Amino acid sequence: MGEKSAKKKQYILDKARVVFSEKGFKNVTMKDIVDACDISRGGLYLYFSSTEDIFLEVLATESDEDDDEAINAALSGDASAGDMLALFLKEQKKDILRKKNNLTVATYEYYSVKKQSVKDNPLKVKFDTSVRIVEKLIENGVDNGEFVCENPLGCARNLMYVVEGLKISSKTIGISEEAIDRELMYVLEGLVSDELNS
């Protein structure tokens, strides 16, 4: 694919992302994307054959980093494990609160009806990557005396289940920033022993 074609394809994906974030997955038609891109239907079909093809490509561009790179980035630098975990959770909170260009509803709509193996599901891959990052941060915190935790993997899984629940709640029943902070702090308080607080 030439440079001009690659730019056109990326333009379509960028516009489609906005459409999916506004309308979900199941309510989007090829006409919606044609209108958003201000191109002909034929021009769109040169790149994609269906809304599903477009959506899956939009999701594929969502993953910012390779799993190992994400884990290494979380563990690099001079910051403490607690600081790194706080930064990780701050990013999660921004994602929970993001109103524009948020694909949460569309993604859950798509995967609630599509039968796909668990290992190929991008939601599962993203969740597992986040669990591994948090697990490594907790292990580092235990090693340097910041945290007390008998089961870093279990704690990491629990924290990410809370984050996923908050994402869904923010899009379905609504949740305040204070409530998000409270729920995340509740999980984190379990990592810090009374001895470390005094």
UniProtKB/TrEMBL annotation:
DNA-binding region, residue range(s): 29-48
Cited InterPro entries: DNA-bd_HTH_TetR-type_CS, Homeodomain-like_sf, HTH_TetR, YfiR_C
Top-level taxon of origin: Bacteria
A GO term for molecular function: DNA binding
Pfam families: TetR_C_17, TetR_N
All copies of domain HTH tetR-type, residue ranges: 6-66
Keyword Transcription tagged: yes
UniProt keyword terms in alphabetical order: DNA-binding, Transcription, Transcription regulation
Entry-linked PANTHER family: HTH-TYPE TRANSCRIPTIONAL REPRESSOR NEMR, TRANSCRIPTIONAL REGULATORY PROTEIN
The protein's name: Transcriptional regulator, TetR family
Gene source species: Butyrivibrio proteoclasticus
